[in-house]
Amino acid sequence: MNTHNISPPPPNRIGGTVFRWGERTFIMGILNVTPDSFSGDGLANDIDAAVEQARRMVDEGADIIDIGGESTRPGAPEVSAEAEISRVVPVIERLAAELIVPISIDTYKAEVAEAAVQAGASLLNDVWGLKRDPRLAVIAARHRLPIVISSSQRDAPVEDIVPAVIDSLKWAIEQAGAAGVAPENIIVDPGFGFGKTPGQNLEILRRLSELRVLGKPVLLGVSRKSTIGRVLGDASVEDRLSGSLAGAVIGIMGGADIIRAHDVKETVRAARMTDAVTRGWQDE
Question: pTM of the entire structure?
Fold first, then answer.
């Protein structure tokens, strides 16, 4: 099947913005309000600093701000829903009143998702793809919100990674649909770095276009991941920008609609250049 000839998914609204997939690549800025972010950018207990960082990312071109209150790095301790809510809700309330771009909540807990929506979030981002808490789909359906469902293999590693990712996403799409989530409100993420070997992560990048068979917008998050550090000779988190941008460009050329990034300014510029090549450029 020639996935490059598949039409883009239909547009949908996230917050007050209509996202027309296929016209350009959208950038999701990462805002970690945790004390233990793998990328060293956690801003726990500093609401003003978190708000300022979000403003800066919007100024740099971010289309969505994704807020997380629990580290998703391998081996990170889980936090209670109450603790996670105490971290994310004050920031979401501030940003919802100040920003024009939609706010996403990065969580797999239904209680956190509900509190975040009440505070002003308009997109749910579930890194477990409804495996840990299927109630997130119920919340998305009740509030008529989009939801990102990711493919994680942390609970069950596999060998043939791309078919496994597609199968797990198909399952999650069915679960979301059964809960009442509108088809156009489902976004998929292959889960780069979640229960996959470095070789499998690179294979996902190489074969990302195969996810087009799902008929959904594709979100890709490679920014500062450990696989990039391995490829660059055990580069530190602070020294992974070039690899992150290369991964973003490869992902866009493979059909990614949204790139999730820490370094927004640089990623926006890389995406615009890649879009000019892959989507066409009109001389003025």
Answer: 0.94
